[in-house]
Amino acid sequence: MQSLRRIEELAWMNVLFYGVGGWGARKTSHTGKFNADFFLMHLVTSSLFLPSIVAYLSPSSTTTLLRTFFNVSVVWWIARGRPALPIREFYAGTTPKPAEPGAPHGTPTEKTLTPADASPNPWLPILQTTLVHPAEHLCKLQRALAHYAAHYGTVPAGHFAELARQSPGLEGAEVLDGTVFVRAAGLTADRMGWMREGQEEMNWDRAGFF
User: Fold this and answer.
1) 3-state DSSP call for residue 120?
2) CA–CA separation, 145 vs 62, rounded Å?
3) d(C-alpha 187, C-alpha 193), whole Å
4) What residue spans define the domains of the chain?
5) d(CA 20, CA 33)
6) Would the CA dihedral through 69, 48, 147, 2 be positive or negative?
7) Could you give phi then psi for residue 37, rounded to 5 degrees?
8) CA 94, CA 113: separation in Å to the nearest integer?
9) Which of 129, 139, 145, 191 has the smallest set of CB atoms within 10 Å of its CB?
10) Which of UniProt's keywords are assigned here (predicted)?
11) SS3 37
């Protein structure tokens, strides 16, 4: 149980590195958009496999693996330029309901269950456009983010309030909630291009945060 908790913490940490760090660096990015860092993205995708690996390890080996993964993740975050993590600004400037270009494509009738919302599940268009995108790493990332959203997507704001009090440098942690995963997925889709919907193909950022 303790190892599962540590794996969850690693998932949150690396999504913050990639998603919040990438959004915070948009003003210094050469595109002026979300910095979808190719290397920090791999921290998210690789963390997805930790539960499958630790299931076959002894407690001592599990501890060694998770500590090493934590250390390597932090080293990569530092090596890529140690992007700031403006969590509160990230939540104020992003949406928990990203939508594809041109949405909504129609008006629901009054008898639908969500007449005011044509797309109540933002993951559906994200996954649809990902399936036909030629960037092979995109499907890996969106799969990981969707998986984490399924497990932790209902975590409410305030869940990390104690962490915010204990870590003054992690400003805004008290507003962190389970929508961070779909927010990061939407930013990634915007950066990589909604090709199914007619946008041109774009690619990962490799310039870092320097």
Assistant:
1) coil
2) 23
3) 10
4) 2-197
5) 13
6) negative
7) -65, 125
8) 26
9) 139
10) Oxidoreductase
11) strand
User: Residues for the chain: how many in total?
Assistant: 210
DSSP-H helix ranges across 94-166: 123-131, 136-152, 161-166
Task: Classify 115 as helix, strand or coil.
Answer: coil
> pLDDT tens, 120-144?
899 999 999 999 999 999 999 999 9
How would DSSP label each residue in 175-208?
Answer: G--TTHHHHHHHHHHHHH--GGGTPPP---B-S-
Coil, strand, or helix at residue 124? helix
Q: In this structure, are residues 122 and 182 in contact, taking their beta carbons and an 8 Å threshold?
A: yes
Q: Residue 150 CB: number of other CB atoms within 10 A?
A: 12
The CA distance from 58 to 71, in Å, is 20
User: Cα(23)–Cα(117) distance, rounded to whole angstroms?
Assistant: 26
Q: How many helices (H) and strands (E) does the chain have?
A: 10, 0
* Residue 179, both tokens: 């929508």
Question: To which residue do tokens 């949406």 refer?
Answer: 95
Question: Looking at beta carbons, which pairs linking 129-135 to residues 24 or more positions away fall under 8 Å?
Answer: 129/100, 129/189, 129/194, 129/195, 129/196, 129/197, 130/189, 131/196, 132/195, 132/196, 133/192, 133/193, 133/195, 133/196, 133/201, 134/195, 134/201, 135/192, 135/201, 135/203, 135/204
Strand partners, 205: 37
